[in-house]
Write a structure and sequence with these properties.
Elements: H1 7-17, E1 21-26, H2 37-43, H3 47-50, H4 61-65, H5 68-79, E2 81-89, E3 95-106, E4 112-121, H6 123-178, H7 185-216, E5 222-225, H8 226-236, H9 238-243, E6 247-250, E7 255-258, H10 260-276, E8 284-292, E9 295-302, H11 334-344, E10 349-354, E11 358-366
Parallel strand pairs: 6-8
Antiparallel strand pairs: 1-4, 2-3, 3-4, 5-7, 8-9, 9-11, 10-11
Helix pairs in contact: 6-7, 7-11, 8-10, 10-11
The chain binds adenosine-5'-diphosphate.
Adenosine-5'-diphosphate is lined by residues 273-274, 277, 302, 304-307, 315, 320-323, 330-336, 359.
Length: 382
Amino acid sequence: MEQNLSQEEIFRLMVDAIQDYAIFLLDPKGVIITWNPGAERIKGYKPGEIIGKHFSAFYPPEDIASGKPRKELEWAVQYGYYKEEGWRLRKDGSKFWALVVITALKLPDGELKGFSKVTRDITDKKEFQQLLEARVEERNRQLLEINKELEQFAYTASHDLQEPLRTVSMYADLLLLRAKDKLSIEEKEFLRYAIEGSERAQTLIKSLLEYARIGVQTKEFKKTEMDGVLKKALFNLRLAVQESGTEVSADPLPIIIADSFQMLQLLQNLISNAVKYKNDRPLKIHVSAKERDHEWVFSVRDTGIGIGPEYQEKIFGLFQRVHRDKKYAGTGIGLALCKKIVQRHHGRIWFESEVNKGTVFFFTIPKMTMTAPPAGESLLPS
Ligand code: ADP
């Protein structure tokens, strides 16, 4: 065969034998100059019906109106090729999902001779993908709904539990006051235990309420100046910071897209823990943020008592406490709350620590732009 046929004829035979791809040539203006059986099979035109026509015939009207075919050729000229997945039209007007590659054909001196266009019908793949996406979306919606219901339940339950507890401690208080001369020392002690117990339960429920609120009472993400958030957190914690003689320093913090109130809760919790879990040495806290790929990595570093590495997962759970010494009062909800806030912002939270030296809590917040990501499914070279 090689002896009788020219290179061009062999090439032509090869292109004609390909059934699954539409392969054809355009002149520099986009007019179709060749057509293969694959193109006929995919797009429905016979060679005589389409050769000499402009390739924009394959595009839906809205794409033609926006100048898409022309822009694709311009892109191919500039960058060598244009590649995308998108809707295209068959001769009968039906749409198919196409994988398209347009390559600019240039002579070594740069003169444009035309374009090759290779199209594949991947509607099946697209439909399968759409089906899958719809299923995932539906499942996500159901999970969100269940989650919301659970959060609503936790919120209402903790709200409603507060009242009877308040009544218990109030009447126990009253009894202690009114009957104090009739009660033995031991009986007074019992009553004090009851009051302490109900007050502790109230504190726990209050924190639980705050935890449940994160998913229920949410604000939109907006531009949040973390410098300002830190200032506010330090203002709220000023008494504890002053009393403990803590030295707080910070690097300039970025502006991020977040729920600013939750960012305040997050920083405030981490700093208040840093202040609380201190040893006898003077305490230093440093707040910082570093840019890494698509996220900000924030850190709150302290020189406190530290945490053993074995608690890495545990301490972010609800009611999980490592230091149960009386001098470190707490409910074990603070870090669970921090984790929930960070997760709502699609970030991660963890710590690095050395016992008796100090701890650094890290959390990430993805960098997001205020504008929506570019539309369409273009796979253009960047
Ligand atoms: P709480 O402080 O109310 O106990 P948290 O959820 O905020 O609850 O913290 C969980 C546990 O993690 C704490 O009980 C403490 O043992 C440990 N922890 C948190 N922050 C620090 C820190 N900066 N240094 C040492 N231990 C810490």
